[in-house]
Design brief:
There is one protein chain. This protein has 244 residues and is α/β, with parallel strands linked by helices. It has one domain: Rossmann fold. The protein has 7 helices and 6 strands, in the order H-H-E-H-E-H-E-H-H-E-E-E-H. It has a 6-stranded mixed sheet with strand order 3-2-1-4-6-5, sandwiched between helices.
Length: 244
């Protein structure tokens, strides 16, 4: 099946399937053009474990911003060893980083939200777009309980980032944090060590901080902009349906 043949009826049917069924379907229908694109947060690690059980062969991909915490790099190595897979890593373009830093400085993301979003565009969104160009089915770790911005996220949808048509699937979209934690404990799924240090959402090292019990799970992202009263704590990958 090619994405061009996918109808809204097909998408509606996908929205009724379990995570296991979605992984099996993606491998059978799209083979090497199905992939998990993950930042190795807890939901992404659960997806990798499910994939290995029900659809080994689905690709595992990530964007390495060159600014990830050492704990995230250690987790990548652990997952490759545990599951016998090779993670495909997509990096930002050196020329674009050099231009950005020369114009705005190394820590431009502290200045304004616009500059923070520019940094994310260079380090995350553009490499993510390159990764997506090789996919027809894109598995993402979005969940509705992660933030107010994500409460209406569908399990499956057709998207067209950069005019490249894809089926975007969030197989665990209706799972709760307890569901994720319970699965990881029961199946001994490797997890990022930062979760034990109070982190609830993990991105780049400088732009991610721990959260307090009464805070939104993504409050630790770009914490210096919390005063803006803007709950759209997104890097740009999942904005406008173009979405990781």
């Amino acid at each position: 099946m090619v994405v061009a043949d996918v109808t809204e009826a097909t998408v509606a049917e996908l929205n009724t399937k379990s995570p296991e069924e979605l992984f099996r379907w993606s491998l059978e229908a799209h083979g090497g053009h199905a992939g998990i694109l993950t930042s190795f947060q807890d939901t992404g690690c659960v997806m990798i474990d499910l994939m290995q059980k029900y659809a080994p062969g689905v690709r595992v991909m990530t964007v390495d911003t060159l600014r990830l915490p050492k704990e995230t790099y250690a987790l990548m190595d652990k997952i490759e060893a545990r599951y016998g897979i090779e993670i495909e890593r997509f990096l930002p373009q050196p020329a674009k980083i050099k231009k950005m830093v020369n114009q705005h400085g190394e820590y431009l993301f502290f200045d304004t939200k616009a500059k923070q979003e520019y940094c994310c565009q260079v380090r995350k969104v553009e490499p993510n777009s390159r990764a997506l160009k090789s996919l027809e089915v894109w598995f993402t770790g979005l969940r509705r309980d992660q933030s107010e911005f994500r409460v209406d996220t569908p399990k499956a949808q057709l998207v067209a980032p950069d005019s490249h048509k894809l089926i975007k699937i969030a197989p665990l979209v209706d799972w709760t944090q307890k569901d994720v934690d319970d699965y990881m404990a029961e199946h001994d799924v490797p997890k990022n060590a930062l979760y034990d240090q109070g982190y609830t959402s993990i991105g780049c090292a400088i732009c991610t901080t721990p959260t307090l019990p009464n805070e939104d799970r993504r409050a630790g992202r770009w914490r210096w902009f919390n005063y803006l009263d803007d709950d759209n704590k997104e890097c740009g990958i999942h904005v406008g349906g173009s979405g990781i």
